[in-house]
Design goal:
Structural class: alpha/beta
Radius of gyration: 21 Å
Mean pLDDT: 98
Bound molecules: pyridoxal-5'-phosphate
Strand order of the largest sheet: 4-12-11-10-7-5-6
CATH class of the largest domain: Alpha Beta
Length: 399
């Protein structure tokens, strides 16, 4: 079959919820992807911050083969080893917590909201149910997750949203005090680095004040580390940059090495309010997804992938700032580790398409920001290649 035929079938049979470029990706190896015509692309979006170890990673392929031949699914009605070992490794490397497994980022946000409300209910009754989130946030597409996603475009046509949500300006410590109430607020949910909203890192003082208020007013602090977690920002978890811990942390994207998995870590005082039957998922804690996640996390820790991401992120940002000197329509270069945004004066969709034509895949975060989230295993030659392609693209536009 040709790529044109595949695209025709997609257009006829798939729900029109995505607009895709006219290429059909066929295989990946390391930090490169190849389309059906054999054209090579440098992957600087990594399946939206998922393929952190690259494509066709031998350890991941081995883990899939090993576990899928042994046991693929039994449901959460039974004990199995992979989810137990994965939960232990996560907790050993994060904070004292209990772990719940599901299948996606949005599902982990739903679970985090439910668990936080359950605990808040136990300490403050039903009045203590409000959830605070931040402007330009993105937490996913299910109803709870879009309700705490403070971007009106995601709500259009789907209202009403979940009641009891409040949106505050991001990085504005002065706005926290009036909005967080011991009587009414159950939880605050925040991305330590806002991804979809334009790649905005939180300020340390702001997060520390938030932690202090949540402690004083008995509010569950949820860190959405679905995009920022697992080495992306140069630490295993982004909260580790700020000297504070959340009460609840959500993880997803890179954990399964490309297989779907979502995770919630919650402090013991929240876990104590749960009991069997309260929440669940048929596929959550899937043995193959968990065994693969165990191999991903082990490799990340053993090979110090966070340090690599920190070093590569600095090189990438320095080179992008050189580009900014040549092209004044670049307004800002920002980010943490290898979650990098390049903000332009105008819409970036043309730049994304032109880079693709030149053999590099990148994303956007909002209309005017390029999102670079490459595999964390890139080396300096890949950074040179990426910045070269972007520079040539921008020079072409100017000519
Ligand atoms: C910070 C953040 N939270 C939640 C989600 C939703 O995750 P999923 O698409 O796996 O449901 C995303 C996805 O982009 C995200 O970046």
């Amino acid at each position: 079959m040709t790529s044109a035929e595949i695209i025709e079938i997609e257009q006829k049979y798939l729900a029109p919820t995505y607009s895709r470029p006219p290429i059909v990706l066929d295989r990946g190896a390391g930090v490169y992807l190849y389309d059906m015509e054999g054209k090579r692309y440098l992957d600087f979006i990594g399946g939206i911050a998922v393929n952190s170890l690259g494509h066709a990673v031998p350890e991941i392929l081995g883990a899939i083969a090993q576990q899928s031949a042994k046991l693929m699914h039994v449901s959460n009605l039974y004990h199995t080893a992979p989810h137990a070992l994965l939960a232990k490794l996560l907790v050993d490397n994060a904070f004292p917590a209990r772990v719940f497994f599901c299948n996606s980022g949005s599902e982990s946000i739903e679970a985090a909201l439910k668990f936080s409300r359950r605990w808040a209910n136990s300490v403050g009754g039903e009045a203590k149910h409000e959830i605070v989130s931040f402007e330009h946030s993105f937490h996913g597409r299910t109803y709870g997750a879009i309700s705490v996603t403070a971007q009106p475009k995601y709500h259009e046509g789907f209202k009403p949203m979940l009641p009891g949500t409040a949106y505050l300006p991001f990085n504005d410590a002065d706005a926290l005090d009036a909005a967080i109430s011991e009587a009414r607020t159950a939880a605050v949910v925040i991305e330590p680095v806002q991804g979809e909203g334009g790649i905005h890192p939180a300020q340390a003082d702001f997060l520390r004040r938030l932690r202090q208020l949540c402690d004083e007013r008995k509010v569950s602090l949820i860190f959405d580390e679905i995009q920022s977690g697992l080495c992306r920002t140069g630490k295993l978890f982004a909260y580790q940059h700020f000297g504070i811990e959340p009460d609840v942390m959500t993880l997803a994207k890179p954990l399964g090495g490309g297989l779907p998995i979502g995770t919630v870590l919650m402090k013991p005082h929240i876990a104590e309010t749960l009991n069997p039957g309260l929440h669940g998922s048929t596929f959550g804690a899937n043995p193959v997804a968990c065994h693969v996640a165990l191999s991903v996390l082990t490799k990340m820790i053993d090979e110090r992938i966070a340090d690599r991401a920190a070093a590569s992120g600095e090189i990438l940002k320095t080179k992008l700032r050189h580009l900014q000197n040549q092209f004044p329509d670049i307004k800002a270069v920002r980010g943490l580790g290898l979650l990098v945004g390049v903000e332009f004066e105008d819409k970036v969709e043309g730049i994304v398409a032109a880079c693709r034509d030149r053999g590099m895949l990148i994303g956007s975060a909002g209309e005017k920001v390029l999102r670079l989230a490459p595999p964390l295993v890139i080396d300096p030659s890949h950074i040179d290649e990426a910045v070269g392609i972007l520079g040539d693209t921008l020079a072409d536009r100017k000519a």
